[in-house]
Amino acid sequence: MTNNNMSKAAQIIQQGGLVAFPTETVYGLGANALDPYAVAKIFALKERPSFDPLIVHIASFDDLEQLTSGTGENVLRLAKHFWPGPLTIVLPKSDKVPDIVTSGLPTVGIRMPDNPTALELIRTSGCPIAAPSANKFGQLSPVSASHVKKQLPDVDYVLDGGATSVGIESTIVSIEGNTCQLLRPGFITQEDIEQAFPGTFVFNQSKPEKLVSPGLLKSHYSPKKPLYILSEAGKSLPEASGLILHSVANSAHTAGKVIYTSQTGNLVEVAANLFAALHTMEEDAHVKNIFIEPVVEKGLGMAIMDRVKKAAYQYNNHTN
Ligand code: TXA
Ligand code: MG
């Protein structure tokens, strides 16, 4: 990252433009969070429905105070433990946050990303940055600058920070008193929060009644080709198939093109390489159908399978 690129990016943010930038999870499509006109451009470029609120990214705890109408002791402890990092906390918003950012909700999702380029962009711009993932609505999340340019060629600027390290989106929680609701599973798991704060939070397991977090949409994160979750072991797939596996132990499966997200089923590696593997399959003209091995839905496996099931949803038969 040259200083030049950074000042140019910050200038675009200050002038109400859009900058795609790396975070530790996925690339974000950023605008000045306090400028409703700039934020409106995010929805237009992404073709994102206006009911889907944005996450506001901050670089210091001082920013937190101006964006929320009050943070309890538990929230501050949670934020201080996991920030900078892949945890978004949904909090009561202050009047400073434009309604377009929160889609009219009285709450705002906030996180401090653990990526030097993202933090520097926020600091240099001098404002909090509202950013969804830098993809067209419903499509694959971008984990490199080239993924962003593929889907959003008209973005004002892309800050290239290389491949992202975590690879899947942040965990989203809402906190009321000591009740914690997981709105979107992510890299930080319920177990991580429980271990860091034993006995502090009661996890509300019930699904929110209305769509408070479109991360809860059944179809999302989808490649432009049919994607199927493998159900049987040792399958020979047609030549025109792409196959994504998570361990060489499963190499009995064969297909025209095989990508391993990990050699050993290591879930941190699987998460880091998941979207890149899907992008590669999407881009490969020889691949007509994509097959992906499932992982066990425990710990980080929950977030991985959340993305995989939503990516595959529209290509599978459903009764509901
Ligand atoms: O890791 C991430 O979270 C990435 C990077 C760029 O920070 N961002 C990201 O943003 O995944 P996006 O817009 O693709 O997903 C954000 C999710 C949406 O499903 C949105 O509904 C939810 O956050 N969200 C934002 N504000 C909310 C609020 N006030 N209440 C409930 N959900 C909220
Ligand atoms: Mg997204």
From TrEMBL:
Q: Where in the cell is it found?
A: Cytoplasm
Q: Which GO terms describe its molecular function?
A: ATP binding; double-stranded RNA binding; L-threonylcarbamoyladenylate synthase; tRNA binding
- GO BP annotations, alphabetical order: regulation of translational fidelity; tRNA processing
Provide this UniProt record's keywords sorted from A to Z.
ATP-binding, Cytoplasm, Nucleotide-binding, Nucleotidyltransferase, Transferase, tRNA processing
Q: What is its main location?
A: cytoplasm
A cellular-component GO term for this protein: cytoplasm
- Annotated residues for binding of L-threonine: 25, 57, 111, 131, 170
The cross-references to InterPro entries, in alphabetical order and at most eight, read: DHBP_synth_RibB-like_a/b_dom, Sua5-like_dom, Sua5/YwlC_C, Sua5_C, T(6)A37_SUA5, TC-AMP_synthase_SUA5
Which residues of the sequence carry a binding annotation for ATP?
Answer: 48, 107, 133, 141, 184, 221
Q: Ranges for the YrdC-like domain?
A: 3-188
Q: Which Pfam families match?
A: Sua5_C (PF03481), Sua5_yciO_yrdC (PF01300)
Which reaction(s) are listed as its catalytic activity?
Answer: L-threonine + hydrogencarbonate + ATP = L-threonylcarbamoyladenylate + diphosphate + H2O
Name the family the entry cites: Belongs to the SUA5 family.
Function of this protein? Required for the formation of a threonylcarbamoyl group on adenosine at position 37 (t(6)A37) in tRNAs that read codons beginning with adenine.
Protein name listed in UniProt: Threonylcarbamoyl-AMP synthase
Per the UniProt record, the source organism is: Maribellus luteus
